[in-house]
Amino acid sequence: MTTPSPMTPRQRVQTALRHQQPDLVPFSWGLYPTPEMVLEMERFFAARGESWAPFADAVDDSVKFSLRYAGPPLPPQTDVWGIVRRPVSYGAGSYDEFAHHPLAGVTSVEEIEAYPWPDAHAHNYDTLRTECLAQDPHGLKAGKLWIDICGNPLEIYTWMTGLEETLTNLALRPTVVQAALERICAVFETRLAQAAPLLADRVDICYFADDLGGQTRPLISPRMYRALIQPFHRRLIEHARTVLPHAAMMFHTDGAVFDLLPDLIDAGVTVLEAVQVDAAGMEPERLKSAFGDRLAFHGGISVQALLPREDAGGVERECRRLAQVFGAGGGYIAAPTHCIQVGTPPENVLAMLRGLGRQTP
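Above: the chain sequence. Below: its structure as tokens.
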């Protein structure tokens, strides 16, 4: 009997997304470790005469394709939406926190229409293919068309107003929210229409996002989601299907979103990303049993509890269990639920990979 040849990383991901069993459960770093955690891993590897960066690249079965802004210079620390961020120290490093919400206090559709929305053409389309494919010249990895092309409309609006004001407007001024989401979606539709043909042969996953869950429940009710938000998710996903009909539709949301999953599936989502198993109702067995025939899962390895707090043996055992539960019959890409934070023992990062059947130094 001949031994089957190992799958390429791309074949591994494609097989899992078809709900078939790959040779190994695919792995992705997802949103990647924080910069401070990367430095920690580099020091850890260097002390052992190894190099972190090539190892981290080798174990990731996917590669991310993003847009680069190429328009007129923007004000310092300001993005194309007019959102301003400032670094705030947490001791071991810093996070960029919001310092200005450009739509805060906007209460009319007229003000939304008058806002200077981004120019969707002001990006590196002329060089996009060359720059993206330089990461993976031979097409061995699965390609993710990233959020900055596909879209996170509610999240963008929330960053432009602040979370409290967004939730208030959803209840009291829904037409204002819908007018903003209309403009935001139009930007993403143009980006996708221009970028997709340039990378179509390399894209396996379209990555959308909107955080819809808190730790114990969704941020909004299923009824409100269906009435006000789902039409925009459906619109973006349907647009993506027209230009990339072969691609899986991945959707990132943190938190307790079990009750929203039927509506996300109805909007066209085929892969749930993050899979925050620490949140209420997001147990792996429950998710796989209820939705495993309709959803693939990407994530599930807790950066809240498992990786920073468990010992290496416990991490390895739990990752092996997650691969067995989520990966039964395919349909699973293992990944941290979010960025691996500084303070996580480097030994636990390697234990995670060993639990997924990967060789480590």
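Residues 33-60+275-361 form one domain.
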